[in-house]
Amino acid sequence: MRRVLVFAVCVLAAGAGLGAQDPDADRISLPLLLGRGGWYVYEFLDKFSNVVSEETYIQDSSVPMQSALLLGRSGAGARNRTLKSDFLLVSVSSAQDWVPFRDVFEVDGQVIRDRDSRLARLFLKPSENSIEQAHRIQDESSRYNLGNMRRTINNPVLGIVILQADFQQRFHYSLGKMDPKVGPGVWIIDYKEEAHPSFIRGRSDLDLFAHGRLWIEAETGRLMRTEVLLEQPSLRAKITTSFRFDDRFGITVPYEMQEEYKFDNGIKVTAVATYDRFRRFDVSTEDTLKDEKVKD
Asked: pLDDT grade, residue 181 (50/70/90)?
């Protein structure tokens, strides 16, 4: 069974099956939604692995901030930044760990690398240190964030972890209302993390407990939206991802991630990332790289 690695915490994915029809449409309950959601997360991780998307990531700050490629220039910094990256969730090496992977290839219109070469080297010829290489690329890419914030929570599939079946006991859940604005038969679940250690780590490796909301399609268990709220003395963060169904992959895929960061000094950073050009990234038995083009 594969695992997902998010912020250095490995958790198992499991769950119970769900039928094509929904015999419980008139008596939706919290256990029913959590069970179907847990099974859907297992299916999502299996189907979304090695699916590459192109991410366009626009960041804005309330004050000018320095960042990579701005350092050394005249002026006090910039309020805006646009990044383009390859984003995928991939299992590398023999450890079978799921790694969210972002590799920036363009910053404010400036191409900084060949967009395919590092993906090919990392995944065409995996090695025992492939996971470490992926994390190093992640860290390198994060330095282009406005203000040089080396955060790793800017991940569109971050909220997926919260519904994994073997991870659900770490949270307290409560059933909210239906939200027809998100979709038919979509229910809101509120959650709050309670168990130590937290799955996201703060400064000095301290617990950073998550809370927020999940939007689940009752009939299928599909996640349609996730919201993750994090608070520590110097920073409050909110990450919201919206999903839509893609029949090419049989799951809902992220199409937008919104972020908001409020610092105790009054500075505010917001960001919107959009995702398109979804395609399967595979390695054939002849050791040739295949970037399967899927028509939009």
From this structure: very high
